[in-house]
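So, is this right?
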Amino acid sequence: MSVGRVAAIVFIFLCVTVAWVVLGSSVTLRTNQGHSDLGRQVEQLWGSEQSQLAPQVAVTLPDGSKQSLELASSDINVDLSLDQRRKGLMWYDTYSVTFEGKYQVANTLQVPVTATVTFSFPSDNAIYDDFELRIGDQQITPKGVTSSVPGTLPLAPGESSEIYVTYKSRGLDRWVYRFADRITTVRDFTLTVNTDFTGYDFPERTVSASSKTRTAQGWELQWRFASLVSDFGVGVEMPHKLNPGPLASRMSFFAPVSLLFFFTVLLVLGVIKGVNLHPMHYFYLGAAFFAFHLLFAYLVDHVLVEVAFVTAALVSLGLVISYLWRVVGPRFALREAGLSQLIFLVLFSYAFFFEGYTGLVVTVGAILTLAVLMQVTAKVDWAAKFARKPKA
């Protein structure tokens, strides 16, 4: 193996790397453009993220000043049903929600007051089915296009009354319940969320559940506070599916690392076993690696991501093994090249299906590869292998 051939292989590696960068950038561009347009379509058809605000109660005192009344108790039940939908290269975490809240409000002042109760809808871009709002004995009906529904409630000193609200709606990504738009005191609060899914998270600036109970369909999450002072809310973030677009782009940007390992193994094993591959051979092998990501990036638009991955892997493996079978024979094609491609291309790429573990898998694979090559080449006389051969 001459230095000139090594330089030619490095040049081929750099050219294929540029092709991967272009492919990854194009997939990212397609994903971002489609996400902004399709995301608006999903919100218009299904609804947007929902953030339910607790009913706000305010009173006007005899001297004309205004004061807020805290809710004496809150008993809320929420059912969340996940119904994820795919548009283009992205999955959207859509859900259905059934909300039922029972609140007690008490007049803690020494004078009779008429409280103004305001119930705000969790989202302006949503539909509300079976909506019912009762303030005391009054049935409140929304009038006109509005994001909130007001009502009045006369209260004698020490008197308490109930506020009841229920509805069915649909949202996107996460459901949040907020106590107020400021730091407030929450008393005798209970919120129970039942889900029909298992993978969930708590959104930013929310309090995690007090108790979590596994059910046959998913989870029962419950928040209980006797007296809480906070400006944080509570809520649930929907589980996320693996999005084909970002997955394909990340795999493309990472691909040069796989090819670098593959070329290194072929070079070292070729020197040891006397298999002298020409730079043109490496060119076709690099193209076969690139074919995996190219086919996956455009096939994932039309089939499940798992089907696209398996199909692209089989095609790339078939290209490499069948080509080297004819060039150097079946043993080197299957054992050295085929096994190396399976590890460095297929398994390394499959690590992207498990978010958070990709770096660890690549690190472990690199260390194991280094250990194997060090042991295999420990007795190799590299000076003799790379020495110039006399001209005939």
User: Anything to note?
Assistant: The mean pLDDT is 85. Residues 57 and 350 are 54 Å apart (CA to CA). The radius of gyration is 32 Å. The chain has seven helices and 17 strands.
